[in-house]
# Entry
Amino acid sequence: MDPAVLAVTPAGPHPPGVTPDLVNGANMGRHSFVVANVVTCLVLTTVVVALRMFARVVVIKTVDWSDYLAVLGYVFSITYFSTTLALDDIRLGRHQWDMSLLDYLNTMEFENISSMIYCVGICFSKLSILFLFKKVFLPVHEGRVYWVNRILIYTNVMFYFGGLFGLIFACIPRAKISKPWLPGRCANVYLSFMLSGIWNVSSDFFILAFPLWAVWHLNIPLKRKFGVALVFAVGTFTLVCSIMRLHATSKLNHNPDTLYIIYKVALWT
# Structure
């Protein structure tokens, strides 16, 4: 299609009484919020990982697979944060009718690649937590607690790398991601986002519940059990974010303003 035509065509239908504004439609307030959100997550993640590696390398002087996976998760998280900023620098928190079809299509393949980075990064991060649980709670490789931990590891690997495979082949041919008029086929975006959201809520719940359950099986005084459980309960915030992300995702099916909904999903991601 002619780029000149795409540049003056809104990327989506506008509500009654609203006039598309492809020139001044950017909402810089939302863009500033995205930047603040990403920078806050970046700073907190960097501080936490730096403190962990300092404790492991300098104080304890030993590292294991949970540390290697944490570093890999951090690297992919930084990359994902960078792609989020790059995407929003183009989209600027706009509604779809305030963005040209040319700009919209130019970001679609980048969005796909960003989702791949997220898939790998979140997988490494969750595996780091599960390997740490394995070391802390499972000195002996037997029993129900051990096998639940193994199942959580295997299922997370299968889901996220299965998701990565699905993103690689989201459209056949891949060029159709940014050029939807080409012959071929594409996966259902809404279904993909919903499956991802449901899995994230489920896995976050079980990863949160696992140490609480494991602590209850430890041979320590009840008071210490509650104290240790309270420390792990801090992870509830992650579960809340996953639930809010799923809630935002659920609106994709009945709202033609896909771009704006994905912006909200990204905030909770």
Summary: The chain has a mean pLDDT of 80. The first helix runs from residue 3 to 7. The longest strand covers residues 171-172.
